[in-house]
Design goal:
Elements (H helix, E strand, L loop, with lengths): L1 H14 L8 E3 L11 E5 L2 E5 L12 E5 L4 E5 L10 E5 L2 E5 L12 E5 L2 E4 L11 E5 L2 E5 L2 E3 L4 E2 L2 E6 L4 E6 L8 E5 L2 E5 L13 E4 L7 E2 L11 E5 L2 E5 L2 E2 L2 E2 L3 E5 L4 E5 L10 E5 L2 E5 L14 E5 L2
């Protein structure tokens, strides 16, 4: 154990994201606790979108957190209720796609929040829920997820949206799975862990995609299977946090160093959760909301972060 910790510290220093092993700190909690949310950074704020409320209902609520002031403000509600949606930010705008609607089915709807107002975008080519989203070079990628619940089908292709033209297209997808972490860093999209169906199908898969490539590249697996998880890119690290399994929610947190191609273990998540939002901004990785117990019970408003500088 000592050797692992020492190696982790050396790698952190060499990665240039911290001079010492980061520790978890607490920020102002989410005013309306919920799970199965989407989260993204837009215009310097962290947005937490939709999700499942304490009474098990889907939500249209959107909250915005300002790290500089440690304060939350309620943003305009989504035009629809959605849990397990996807979101990503670019050029100060917040994009939200899919999720499960009021009828429990994956949606193909997409919206953008700009200047305090939601605008409908062209619908995705196919419905998606429990997927992930990220921007690379101002193009939006929706990765993984569930396409259909009846006769259950997982997505085999990723979707790309070009805000400049308002058009969607299909591009190669990673190994099909849902409840995965998706993020972008250094011109690539990353798909982290996830699962095929129930808790017993959790995966440790870690794959990367360079826009324009024909396939995703498989990287070293996460040191522990996890579904209902999240991921964020910061510096040279892809940080993986959260998840659920039969024995409970997952507290271990890992970071993949793109230069050394090795996983580093960080301090455990103070409030283990799944269905959470994981984002990076201002040299910090924030982990917001989520469920404290496997399934839809025990929603949380916890807002915790690792400071890398």
């Amino acid at each position: 154990m000592f050797r692992v910790a020492a190696v982790a510290l050396v790698l952190l220093v060499s990665a240039g994201v911290a001079g010492a092993a980061p520790q978890w700190r607490h920020a102002a909690p989410l005013p309306a606790p919920r799970s199965e949310v989407a989260a993204a950074v837009a215009g310097g704020k962290i947005y937490v979108v939709g999700g499942v409320t304490p009474d098990g209902q889907g939500s249209a609520r959107v909250d915005a957190f300002a790290p500089a002031t440690d304060r939350w403000q309620q943003a305009p509600d989504l035009p629809v209720t959605a849990h397990h949606p996807m979101s990503a930010g670019d050029r100060g705008r917040l994009y939200v796609m899919g999720g499960y609607g009021a009828d429990g089915q994956p949606m193909s709807k997409a919206f953008v929040l700009a200047n305090g107002r939601w605008t409908s975008l062209r619908a995705m080519p196919e419905p998606r829920a429990a997927a992930g989203a990220a921007f690379v070079n101002h193009k939006l990628y929706v990765v993984g997820g569930v396409v259909r619940t009846g006769g259950r089908r997982l997505a085999t292709a990723a979707l790309r949206y070009d805000p400049a033209t308002g058009r969607w297209s299909k591009v190669p997808g990673p190994t099909p799975r849902e409840h995965l972490g998706v993020t972008a860093l250094n011109g690539h999209v990353y798909a982290v862990a996830g699962r095929k169906a129930g808790f017993d199908t959790n995966l440790a898969l870690f794959e990367a995609y360079r826009p324009g490539a024909r396939t995703w590249r498989r990287l070293a697996p996460v040191p522990g299977k996890r579904g209902g998880t999240g991921a964020a890119g910061i510096g040279w690290l892809i940080v993986s946090a959260g998840g659920e399994q039969f024995s409970g929610t997952i507290r271990t947190v890992f970071g993949y160093d793109l230069r050394s191609r090795r996983w580093i273990r960080f301090p455990d998540l103070p409030t283990p959760r799944h269905g959470l939002g994981v984002v990076a901004t201002g040299g910090r990785v924030y982990v917001v909301a989520g469920g404290k117990q496997p399934g839809l019970a025990g929603v949380s408003g916890a807002n915790e972060f690792l400071a890398f500088r």
